[in-house]
Amino acid sequence: MYRGLNKMNLVCMAMLWLATPGAGSLADQARAGLLLYGERGAGGEEIVTRLLFTPGKLRIESRDRAEGYILYHSEAASIYSVTPDERTILVIQPEAEKPRIPDGMALKLERIDDIDAPEIGGSKPQHWRLTVNGSVCRDAILAPGLMADQRLLYRDYLMLLANQHYLGLAAVPAEYRDPCDDAVHVFAPALFVERGLPVRVWDQHGYQQSLLDFSVEKQVGTELFHLPGDYQLVPISQSR
Questions:
Q1: If we measure between CA atoms, which residue out of 52, 50, 56, 51 comes closest to residue 77?
Q2: N or C: which end of the chain has fewer CB within 10 A?
Q3: How far, rounded to the nearest angstrom, does the alpha carbon of residue 120 sit from its chain's CA centroid?
Q4: What whole-number distance in Å separates Cα of residue 217 and Cα of residue 204?
């Protein structure tokens, strides 16, 4: 309910995209953390998603920037979904209490035997598995200790987004809900990212995510983290 090429071609396209992060003079540049992921749903086309981090701010966008992007500002505890075609900014500021795992939902997160894989940025990858109500839900290869500050910011974003999902959960018919999706996106969204940088993720629905690149030294234009001043702000409660 929450789901939104050749491998070499994908990486080459990603590298070309990374080479042009945004115009601006050196004075308008900032050092940012970068995560680049390739993602694919079951039977779907693989897309590239870029995450850029500066202190207290996160930008998420697909390779096709015309579709818009997401900004998270931690100080404002707000998520902004920017749509250039409509010149609108959807503002997500959930006010409800944080979701709590239901009594009838049994979560088990366990570390599987260490995998035989080379270190990534000095970190030895680990295999973790999430089980929900006795069924395998999601597996992840994580790099502990890597991109720690960026992971904390991403965790806060995931938890705020989960709060918004929680507000609308009661309106979703039971037949359209899945315990694994509820666990991953609503009740325990940060289980993996708190333990390491996701290098590879897969689940029982066929979803796959692979880390293509990462850096803490990316130079980007500071304008990438600013909201357009002439767009209409639309609180999410008014958009329903």
A1: 56
A2: C
A3: 20
A4: 35
- Which range of residues forms the domain containing residue 49? 7-238
Query: What are the strands of the beta sheet with 126-132, ordered from one edge?
Result: 107-111, 126-132, 135-143, 197-203, 208-221, 29-40, 47-54, 57-62, 69-73, 78-83, 88-92, 232-235
Task: Give the burial class of 128: count Cβ atoms within 10 A of its Cβ; 0-12 exposed, 13-18 middle, 19 or more buried.
Answer: buried
Q: How many CA atoms lie within 13 A of 200 on its CB side?
A: 8
Residue 43 is assigned to a structural domain of this protein: yes
pLDDT tens, 20-72? 444 444 458 889 999 999 999 887 888 999 999 999 999 999 976 567 999 99
**pTM of the entire predicted model:** 0.85
CATH of the domain at 72: 2.50.20.10
Q: Which of 112, 102, 95 is nearest to 170 (CA)?
A: 102
Residue 148 placed within a domain: yes
CB 211 within 8 A of CB 200: yes
Q: Considering only CA atoms, which of 189, 171, 168 is closest in space to residue 237? A: 168
Which two structure tokens, joined as six digits, stand for 57?
A: 């701010």
